Amino acid sequence: MNIAEKGMEKLSSVAKTFTPSPIQELSHLAQRCNAINLAEGFPDFPAPPHIKNAAVSAINSDFNQYRLNPVVEIARHVQGICDQLAKLMKEMYSLDVDPLTDIAICCGQTEAFAAAVFAIIDRGDEVVLFDPSFETYEASITIAGGVPVYVALDPPNWTLDADKFMKSISSRTKAIVLNSPHNPTGKVFSRDELEIIAGACCTRDCLAITDEVYEHITFDQEKHISLASLPGMQERTIITSSLSKTFSVTGWRVGWAIAPAFIASAIRNIHVKITDSAPAPFQEAALTALTSPSEYFESLRRDYEFKRDYIVKLLAGIGFQIRFKPQGSFFLFAELPENCLLSDVEYVQELIKQAGVVAVPGCGFFHTNLSLEKSSQVDCGYQKRYIRFAFCKSNATLAAAAQNLGKLLGASGCLMLN
């Protein structure tokens, strides 16, 4: 037994199950090829000046020490963030949130979600998720000892099948996870679908954890509806979100959980044990961000809608099947050309090598058991037919990607990767 194998024996059973994501595995190849990054979901353009100035001012004013949650006496300065979040919840969703007790400030949405899971999930509890799904949800559930139960959304429009959903709920179901607008597909769950989820939560006495980081990024007059705003749901919903996507500051790591007071208190206690506090100067700048005028949010939505339309036209022009146009978020889940024999992973490898553009193979977002589904005569071949492109990039980056992707078309106008 070599040193590495001996070292593996010392890892926990959970740690042994975690492997690099498709994004991580392809990043090295992309770096060697100096590929244009349409894979990772972070903007490559500057954050809004007024928000950056607020952060700089906070640093210059020596806001450099721990910034605890507002229930702690010394943390009164953070209360403004919670006050503003409560105000926004009232304006956007008609929710009455107590800023003193119902909000926990965390290190980004990822930690807020993890702390929420740790606050409510015991070993053996089942948690329902919708597939495809962002990978970090399952990780938190597994670490907590919970059991992820996936319900496949139906392509190409990623609709929720009420029968499949209800059959996934058992006496062991503790919570349902909802991400809308949805990563990776760009789906915005409809009110009818939300009512199905809310109905199940209420009748089966389940909690819900929502990821609403893309709430301000919706297109074509679609409106984000928070699950917590439906009848009977505020008292059983944990909302998680952050500054990252709305304000183009994914590295600032300021997020929050909004929940009934007893759950929010548990999340705060877990947060303090894990990370202690979110970055101090960025918490100060968060108040400036959250009080941005309505024109800012409309401009954000309009700019991303333009980028969405640009990349949809671009990818359709080189043969991708765009049977579902994103309704929100800043991702396009594009289906491989109909006559393409490559898998999603193989196609992305060729994109990097031949066009110098990197995206994410869709298989990394699918978690349903293929053999189980096939035994039920359900075709899951589509799970290797999608690629996620991030269009949260500058117009210059998107134009450069368009130029490179144009190289994939032969003289006949046919895609050369087939």
From TrEMBL:
It holds the Pfam family Aminotran_1_2. SUPFAM superfamilies: PLP-dependent transferases. Residues 36-364 form the Aminotransferase class I/classII large domain. Keywords: Aminotransferase, Pyridoxal phosphate, Transferase. GO terms for cellular component: cytoplasm. The keyword Transferase applies. GO terms for molecular function: kynurenine-oxoglutarate transaminase activity; pyridoxal phosphate binding. PROSITE patterns: AA_TRANSFER_CLASS_1. Its cofactor is pyridoxal 5'-phosphate. Belongs to the class-I pyridoxal-phosphate-dependent aminotransferase family. This is Aminotransferase class I/classII large domain-containing protein.
